[in-house]
Amino acid sequence: FSSWTCGGKQRANDISATSDMSMLTPNACIDMCYGEKPTRPVVQLVDVRLQGKNNKGVMSDGETTFFAVFNSAVAKMFRSESNPDGQVELYSAVRLTDYTISTISAETRVAIVMGMEMNESQPEGKIGDPVSAKDKGKPEPAELPAATPSKGPSPGGHSNTTPESSQQSRVAPAGFAPKPAARASEPAAPGRPTPIEALNPYSRTWTVRAKVTENGELRSITTKAGETMSVWEMVIADESGEIKCTAWRADAERFARIAELGSTYLVSRGQIKIANKRYSSTANNYEITLGADSAMVKQDVELKTFTPTYHFDFTPIADLSAKPANSTVDVIGSVTEVGPVQNIVSKAGRELVKRVINLSDDSNAAIEVTLWGKSAETFAEDAAATAAVVAFKGLVVSEWNTRSLGAVRSTKIQMAPALPQAKRVKAWADTGAASAATSLSINTSGGGSGGGGASMADDLAELLGLPPSKIPEKGAYATVGGYISRILTSKGGGGGGPAEERPIWYSACPKCNKKAIGEYGAGWSCESCGWSGDACTHRYIVAVQLIDASGTSYATAYQEQAIAIFGKTADELKAIKDADQSAFEAECSSVLFKRRTFRLRAKIETYQGVDRTKVGVVNSTPTTPITEGKRMLADIMKYDLPEPPAPEPSATPDEPMPQAAAGEAAEPAAVEA
User: Fold this and answer.
1) Does residue 34 carry a pLDDT above 60?
2) Residue 468: HSE in the Cβ half-sphere, 13 Å Cα cutoff
3) Choosing a second label site near 231 at 20 to 30 A (CA), which of 146, 302, 594, 640?
4) Structure pTM?
């Protein structure tokens, strides 16, 4: 480079040296050029180019130069117009505290600088007249001494050692064969394994020895182009750090068969790229994609692994309404509700397991969190009863139910974390305020398993009495404590006529959950997605009668809410009905007159020109003394009540009872007692 611009100043590279070369580490650059790594070398920066994410420069040891790339943290140390407080500038002497040598090709290497500091002494200008270490070449080693002649001359008076025999023979011995190149099923010759923390996109030839700390399931995905492919992920760790590995298609199937959780492997030949933090929460800025030439060989060694420390950046739940969809957030809160585990079928036909929980924090807001897979199955079902505090790292903001959070494969969950935020939220939840928090999740589809907006009514009569002009387009919400007094399994029958059976489920397409058309034994089809098959699934649509102290109301409970009420899926309850009608009726009767807390939504619908209020069950949970007591306590705390007066001290046994004044009748002993 001929010149360099920094902070508006242009300095020529031919500034004469005015400093002693002794402050620089001798031969540091030429050693790096040939793959060696001097310890904490001091070098001079003779050229720097800061270009956003592409920050590079040239280092000098006074005699030779070597190319360097700086990460974003190091780039912030340079002084520029946008960063006038930076300390590093052209011709500064710096000490490399954290760096690695990356091999680009057989003849090209580069230093990746991840940490450096200013040297104690600084030059006044450019030191020496360095040339490229690659052009100069590595110094030849000192010549070996000549071969020692044999003791004594030959019979003819000549030495037995000839010039040819004094040199090492370059002819391969008989039977010698060169080592074959490594196959794709074998790791590259590791030599000294590369630490995971040293991996970066510039690394070309590398092998890591690491333990599998997370082993994902082999799964199939469908692309937008309609292609179905396999994908598999794992996380490996050594003493220096951890990194996520992903494989696709046939490679995913191959590595999924090899990897075992807790085992140690040599892993080599993969593409290293910047990690997508939406799908990776490892403590690493990079991730590995394993391909056809990648290798993974098991090692019979016990490896001490890196223990990740998660750094949370918590967002108050009340602030989530301002977060854009698909953004990733960390939250901590008290669990106020744990829904049941649900088995659903996605639009792509995949069977999924999910669980919905409600989380609230001391911002007096609550939100719905959806867990999937193993996280849904293993989440503590008693978390709501104990008001457990849970920290989530890497939840994705969704517009489902207006605003909600969803877990992804990389989401980390910590129950009762040892954090000051956890203590604060726990103290807030113990006051009972969590049950009165306003939820950001508003169910707008009649499905789902939780949420709701701010309550506009406290009982059924108040909810049903709202005038249509006061009910928003998305509905009016109310939290009501009451009972199910009736399950409507029949309709009609008025005037003495026979009652008609009223199913509490419908035949559904297993692919898209829309209504399926057909008959049992003759096959089913879906007009919505085109599916057809011999068997359909069943989904709830249950009409119930609710009752509380103020009155009664009819309401509809859909799939997830009905599962929470019955404790069974529609397919399971239908199987009971088909086998024994009386057992089915007993199941319906078993849920009646058990106190529950209902989250209801009222909407105005027009039928034959007449507006009427239709009520739907958004959420339903059994009422326990703990949850009911906390809800009532939260209601009391809404009022600015004065402190109760201190009780008057009672008479001690030694004190005489006050005597009645003259003219007053003494109270009867029974009244006193």
Assistant:
1) yes
2) 8
3) 302
4) 0.43
What burial class does residue 666 get, using C-beta atoms within 10 Å of its C-beta: 0-12 exposed, 13-18 middle, 19+ buried? exposed
Assign 3-state DSSP to the chain and report helix, strand, coil percentages, each to 5. 15, 35, 45
Q: How many CA atoms lie within 13 A of 237 on its CB side?
A: 18
Separation between Cα atoms, residue 132 and residue 135, nearest integer Å: 5
What are the counts of helices (DSSP H) followed by strands (DSSP E) for the chain? Answer: 12, 34
Contacts of 533 (CB under 8 A, 6+ apart): 510, 523, 524, 525
CB 617 within 8 A of CB 543: no
Exposure letters 242-277 (e unless 16+ CB within 10 A, then b): bbbbbbeeebbebbbeebeeeebbbbbbbebeebee
State which amino acid sits at residue 629: G
Neighbours of 577 (CB within 10 A): 18
In the structure encoding, which two tokens stand for residue 41, read together? Answer: 């070398």
What is the Cα–Cα distance from 586 to 622, expressed in whole angstroms?
Answer: 19
562 neighbors 489 (Cβ within 8 angstroms): no
Q: Quick: pLDDT tens for 134-144.
A: 877 666 554 44
Give bridge partners of residue 330 from the DSSP assignment. Answer: 314, 393
Whole-angstrom distance, CA of residue 464 vs CA of residue 442: 19
Contact 558, 570 (CB under 8 A): no
Strand 365-372 versus strand 438-439 pairing type: parallel
Token pair of 381 as six digits: 């079902």
Predicted confidence (pLDDT) per residue in 460-498, tens digit: 888 888 888 788 877 888 888 899 999 998 876 555 556
Query: What confidence score (pLDDT) does residue 587 get?
Result: 93
Q: Shortest CA distance to 274 belongs to which of 306, 230, 243?
A: 243
Q: Which of 90, 113, 87 is nearest to 32 (CA)?
A: 113
Please answer whether residues 112 and 102 qualify as being in contact, where contact means their C-beta atoms are separated by less than 8 angstroms.
Answer: yes
Q: Give the C-alpha separation, 215 to 252, whole Å.
A: 12
- Pair 513, 531: CB distance under 8 Å: no
The confidence band for 627, taking pLDDT boundaries of 50, 70 and 90, is low
Tokens for 633, please give them: 């306590």
Other C-beta atoms closer than 10 Å to the C-beta of 498 total 7
Q: What are phi and psi of 559, to 5 degrees?
A: -45, -65
Handedness of CA 343, 528, 222, 256 (dihedral sign): positive
- d(C-alpha 387, C-alpha 371), whole Å: 18
Strand pairing partners for 329? 395
Terminal-residue alpha carbon distance, the chain: 104
